[in-house]
Design goal:
The chain contains four helices and seven strands. The protein is α+β, with helices and mostly antiparallel strands and 188 residues long. It has a domain of 127 residues: PH-domain like (Roll), CATH 2.30.29. The protein has a seven-stranded antiparallel sheet. The longest helix is centred in the first third of the chain and has 45 residues. It starts with a helix and ends with a helix.
Length: 188
């Protein structure tokens, strides 16, 4: 994009100075847009938290870690809605064409958590409990969602086994203090 503009300059120092200025401007613009996103994020999270609390009516101790827009498949029918990942539960809520779908699955009940694909869908997260299998898809970032789910399931398992065998990370001993950012940092 800069090549046709660079022909205007007479010497290499002016060209270098111009290009450096453009690059610095791009970096500054990117940084300010990221800061703006971070400022918007708490508001969106607060909104999601209010909806989560209203829809699922958990006690205050149940902390929402993060949420995602996705589809939950009921047979061959996709139900567009919101997946809420909390400290102790995986929850899904959808209201479409007058029909409400509300799922609450405790992490302790999940026997298998896997990425799958089938004839209809590629990249699906399948949750298996003793009674059912549920498929979730259409995530903006499936890798992120799956990693967070794995970590929350792992934290739950560690808390269950803590008294017998494992020493739990001090950071994970108080589940109300776990955040999405903590889980992402731990994964890194």
């Amino acid at each position: 994009n800069l090549l046709h503009t660079l022909s205007v300059f007479d010497n290499k120092d002016d060209i270098a100075s111009f290009v450096k200025g453009k690059v610095k401007a791009l970096i500054a613009e990117e940084t300010s847009s990221r800061l703006a996103e971070q400022e918007e994020e708490p508001e969106k999270f607060r909104e999601a938290l209010v909806k989560f609390e209203a829809r699922f009516n958990f006690p205050e101790a149940e902390k929402l870690v993060t949420y995602y827009s996705c589809c939950c498949w009921k047979g061959r029918v996709p139900r567009q809605g919101w997946l809420y990942l909390s400290i102790n539960h995986l929850c899904f809520y959808s209201f479409f064409l007058g029909k409400e779908l509300k799922l609450v699955v405790p992490w302790v009940d999940i026997q298998k958590l896997e990425r799958t694909s089938n004839v209809f869908l590629t990249d699906t997260i399948r949750i298996t409990t003793q009674n059912k299998e549920r498929d979730f898809s259409m995530f903006l970032n499936l890798d992120e969602v799956f990693k967070i789910m794995e970590q929350l399931a792992d934290v739950t398992l560690r808390r269950l086994l803590d008294n017998e065998v494992f020493d739990l990370d001090p950071d994970l001993q108080e589940p109300s203090q776990i955040t999405k950012r903590d889980l992402e940092a731990r994964a890194q």
